[in-house]
Design brief:
Elements: H1 3-7, E1 13-18, E2 23-25, E3 33-41, E4 44-50, E5 53-54, E6 67-69, E7 81-83, E8 92-101, E9 107-119, E10 127-132, E11 137-139, E12 144-150, E13 157-161, E14 166-168, E15 175-177, E16 180-183, E17 192-198, E18 201-202, E19 206-211, H2 245-282
Parallel strand pairs: 1-9, 11-19
Antiparallel strand pairs: 2-7, 3-4, 3-8, 4-5, 6-7, 8-9, 10-12, 12-16, 13-14, 13-17, 15-16, 17-18, 17-19
Organism: Mugilogobius chulae (yellowstripe goby)
Region (Disordered): 220-246
InterPro entries: Ig-like_dom_sf (IPR036179), Ig-like_fold (IPR013783), Ig_sub (IPR003599)
């Protein structure tokens, strides 16, 4: 596997620390025996574990006596490391790779990476990065607006880390105006971490991912949280909006049919009435017969 290609990808995990703090970068491998585990920071060897011990001869001077294994005896298969007394120079990409021997005597490769941000002071409560539209996944060529809001009126720089470079808005990407950065057409290379920064103060980062083909959904993790107003108990005002186009079309069609059918219905009713009146005039008068019941005698023989 090409190690350089792995460094250009996004990190598996991200951590934020301040100067002077200790930092743990943990990573557990699958079941087996660790043959070798090597940590690197840029082009420096941070720690190399092989032959069941740390090889200090391969360790860079800047990490001597302040880096150790999370599990020195590898009983938990945690090949992670602990960094002590962080400095600003410790920020950047940390990459771990190595080999394990599985219970069936096969060898398996493992790799993991961290992006470590180290600042003199991080104040996440006073500045907030807002993304509009409010989502973290975008399609190629989508537009996005990033803005920083804080308790003061000062201007903030909007920064990003795309694994290949850490840059502020307006240098090689985006259009910057005050604390607002706009990107008119996103590409896959814009995927990465974005945050606000000024004088050592930094906001919580937001990861933005650009997909080649993506239908946005109501996402994911919102970049800002606002209070939701309580539901209103008042009845909504009557709507005065124009009916939808489909309803208007149906009403017009019904009216046209009525206008077409009305003459036929009226003429038919007139013809039926006229025919009935004509028949009543041509019919002969009714015949009445008088019967004289006085002259009828019924005889009975006894």
């Amino acid at each position: 596997m090409d190690l350089n290609s792995l460094f250009t990808k996004q990190a598996d995990e991200v951590m934020h620390k301040t100067v002077g703090e200790d930092c743990e970068l943990p990573y557990e491998v699958s079941d087996g025996k660790v043959i070798i585990s090597e940590w690197k920071h840029c082009d420096k060897r941070v720690l190399t574990y092989r032959d069941d011990k740390i090889d200090e001869n391969l360790q860079d001077e800047s990490f001597r006596n302040r880096v150790e294994l999370v599990d020195p005896f590898m009983t938990s298969l945690n090949v992670g490391i602990k960094l002590q007394n962080l400095t600003l120079e410790d920020a950047g990409r940390y990459f771990c790779e190595g080999l394990i021997q599985t219970p069936d005597n096969n060898r398996e490769f493992f790799a993991h990476s961290f992006d470590l941000f180290v600042s003199e002071q991080i104040t996440q409560a006073t500045v907030l990065l807002t993304v509009r539209p409010n989502r973290q996944h975008f399609s190629r060529w989508d537009a996005v607006s990033l803005s920083c809001s804080s308790d003061d009126t000062g201007s903030w720089d909007i920064m990003r880390d795309t694994s290949t470079a850490v840059e502020s808005c307006g240098v090689h990407w985006g259009k910057s105006k005050g604390s607002v950065c706009k990107v008119e057409a996103l590409v896959s290379e814009d995927s990465g971490l974005y945050w606000c920064e000024r004088d050592g103060h930094r906001s919580a980062p937001v990861r933005i991912t650009v997909h080649k083909d993506f239908n946005p959904v109501m996402d994911l993790v919102p970049t800002s949280v606002s209070e939701t107003p309580p539901p209103s108990t008042e009845a909504p005002p009557p709507s005065s909006q124009t009916p939808p186009l489909s309803q208007r079309t149906l009403g017009m069609a019904l009216l046209c049919h009525l206008l077409v059918l009305c003459p036929y219905v009226v003429s038919t009713a007139l013809l039926v009435s006229l025919c009935r009146h004509t028949r009543s005039e041509d019919a002969p008068p009714p015949v009445t017969r008088d019967y004289d019941i006085t002259g009828v005698v019924t005889e009975y023989d006894f």
